[in-house]
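Backbone shape codes:
===
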Amino acid sequence: MEKEEWKDGVGANEAENSFSVESNEIEQSKVGIMRALVEAEDPSAKEEDDLMIRRFLRARDQDIERASNLFLKYLSWRRTFVPNGSISTSEITNQLAHNKLFMQGVDKKGRPIVVCFGGRHKQNNLEEFKRFVVYTLDKICSRMPSGQEKFVCIGDLKGWGYSSSDIRGYLAALSILQDCYPERLGKLIMVHVPYIFMTAWKVVYPFIDSNTKKKIIFVENKKLRSTLLSDIDESQLPDTYGGQLPLVPIQDT
């Protein structure tokens, strides 16, 4: 009887592995089909690798048509919004002056850690803030370890108040993240969340797609350190949370 049960277990594992291989093959096939479609519409798509195609495909639940439309919109947006290929620090001096975004260390899955101090953000020039978001995401993506595609963000809202309640800015940042950098966010850990923030959160929440919602967690202050250490080794945890790494401003990484 024990032998038969063991056989069943092996059979189940083999079936699972077979399904995984088959799913990968189907996805690879869809990447090829999508590439042919988007390159026919926009030859500049040839400059993007298969991982980029795959991220857009996954963001649209393997729907080739929807993923292709999103990807083509991204290419058009990129040419218009980032005509020089990158955002320079001279274009976002006011945003950088607030010293609100840092990058240091990796979590236990090897994903880069980004720390964003939301309370330091103030409502100001929307276009410059959008450029700051693109600058930040490009910087993060360029610092991805080999074989890694996603990052983890600690969203620290200590000191957040109505002067930080930039709904237009939040929605713009969300749109850029979801539509232009899909499948880049691995996890968003919200900490030091004041009660008044939930007013802004209720406005923004309906615009967050279902895939992104699954990646967001809110942490109580009393569980902050234990929650962070469940994902991040102390040697990689920013020192502001009791870890060993000093925070490094995003522009200095």
Q: What stands out?
A: The mean pLDDT is 91.
